[in-house]
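Propose amino acids for all 401 sites.
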């Protein structure tokens, strides 16, 4: 049995960044850019009005007051056809190109029409450049607007669109297949018969994968039958990561490790000093240059949940090129005394007693099969291995859920 930190180190050694690929920018939120993206044009592409009003020659308003002749109206999407001369103005809308001759825009609120042809303006401080965004002042053509390695958010998708990119080279989201194993499992839509329970781990893992930045693929349930496991595991090995739930401890029907060995999946570790989650299995298969990481998570739902958050989330992040993909760690204060027994470091569910003060109370929890109690959990307290009695008010490290 290895320590949690040794397990992290082994995962870090084997989880390599996926090759980059060209894909839709809209499908690339949270992905790392794998190219420098340059602007294909100036932005704005022309000197642009930033207010609805009149394009004027600033010198005409040196005294703060003027009556000017209106020579045309320029709306956004159209181009000016005339040059604005002294004592002239062009009606202009926000976003429209500034006409030749004009060097300032006066907002409409400071103007008054005089008949159909003239406008009276009372505005002080109208200097050249007023209410004009100069051509290329946001972006110049050819300049790198997003560097390789940048993590894409919605705002970067907007910038990509501005420079004409709907496809972009990124490190893709890891594809993560999920296979739940066990004869006792029935689908979520079924009422379990005698000796049966619903497959809660499968949907939970699919949701966890999506939340951790992977693309989940559910392979449903495989019964503890060698042929069925073999076929479904073979399919799962086409993904970047295969997550198996159940069958990794020592039960008579725990066929998973031997089926994996048959399929040339090499074991890297089995069992970690951790509660819940001790029987976790980790391995790797490389065939024709394609590597699949395989996690066998313990069947108990809370063990599955915890192992995913500690180990699988980490691997998804590494494949996606991210260095930080872990749950947030925090130092909290125990709101109630707690007795820890056992030789494994324990992650114990707790809820905020007072989130602002960072005080947390351990939950009443029946162990790794008690998923329902976890609904009240905000965090997992990290108790070190060994018997110890903790007093209320003691500091303890925790992971935020
Ligand atoms: N002799 C030993 N027995 C056990 C050991 C051990 O070291 N030696 N470890 C215990 C620990 S710790 C855990 S955790 C469990 C893990 O067992 P498996 O990974 O082999 O899982 P199963 O036996 O298949 O199932 C355990 C438990 O979880 C339920 N389960 C399984 N899959 C699902 C699912 N998809 N959704 C909901 N619940 C699921 C299953 O019905 C069992 O109740 O082993 C201990 N035993
Ligand atoms: O480690 Mo098991 O996951 O305690 O129940």
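Proposal:
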């Amino acid at each position: 049995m290895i320590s949690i930190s040794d397990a992290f180190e082994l995962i870090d050694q084997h989880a390599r960044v996926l090759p980059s690929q060209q894909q839709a920018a809209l499908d690339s939120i949270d992905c790392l850019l794998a190219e420098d993206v340059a602007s294909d044009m100036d932005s704005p592409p022309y000197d642009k009005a930033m207010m609805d009003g009149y394009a004027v020659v600033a010198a005409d308003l040196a005294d703060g007051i003027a009556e000017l002749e209106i020579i045309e109206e320029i709306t956004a999407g159209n181009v000016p056809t005339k040059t604005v001369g002294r004592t002239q103005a062009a009606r202009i809308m926000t976003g429209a190109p500034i006409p030749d001759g004009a060097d300032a825009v006066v907002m409409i609120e400071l103007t008054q029409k005089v008949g159909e042809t003239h406008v009276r303006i009372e505005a002080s401080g109208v200097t050249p450049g007023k209410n004009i965004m100069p051509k290329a002042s946001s972006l110049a053509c050819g300049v790198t607007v997003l560097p390789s390695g940048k993590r894409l958010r919605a705002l970067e998708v907007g910038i990509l669109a501005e420079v004409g990119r709907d496809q972009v080279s990124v490190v893709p989201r890891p594809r993560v297949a999920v296979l739940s194993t066990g004869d006792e499992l029935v689908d979520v839509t079924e009422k379990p018969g005698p000796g049966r329970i619903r497959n809660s781990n499968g949907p939970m893992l699919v949701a966890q994968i999506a939340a951790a930045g992977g693309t989940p693929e559910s392979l449903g349930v495989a019964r503890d039958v060698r042929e069925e496991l073999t076929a479904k595991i073979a399919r799962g090995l086409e993904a970047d990561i295969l997550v198996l739930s159940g069958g990794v401890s020592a039960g008579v029907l725990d066929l998973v490790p031997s089926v994996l060995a048959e399929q040339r999946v090499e074991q890297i570790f089995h069992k970690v000093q951790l509660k819940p989650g001790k029987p976790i299995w980790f391995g790797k298969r490389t065939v024709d240059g394609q590597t699949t990481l395989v996690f066998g998570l313990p069947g108990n739902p809370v063990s599955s949940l915890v192992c995913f958050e500690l180990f699988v989330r980490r691997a998804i992040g590494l494949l996606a090129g991210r260095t930080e993909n872990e749950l947030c760690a925090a130092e909290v204060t125990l709101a109630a005394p707690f007795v820890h027994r056992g030789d494994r470091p324990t992650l114990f569910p707790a809820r905020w007693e007072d989130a602002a003060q960072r005080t947390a109370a351990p939950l009443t929890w029946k162990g790794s099969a008690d998923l329902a109690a976890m609904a009240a959990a905000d965090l997992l307290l990290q108790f070190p291995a060994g018997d110890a009695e903790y007093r209320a008010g003691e500091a303890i490290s925790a992971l935020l859920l």
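Residues 335 and 346 are 18 Å apart (CA to CA). Helices lie at 4-14, 154-162, 201-211, 226-236, 256-262, 301-319.
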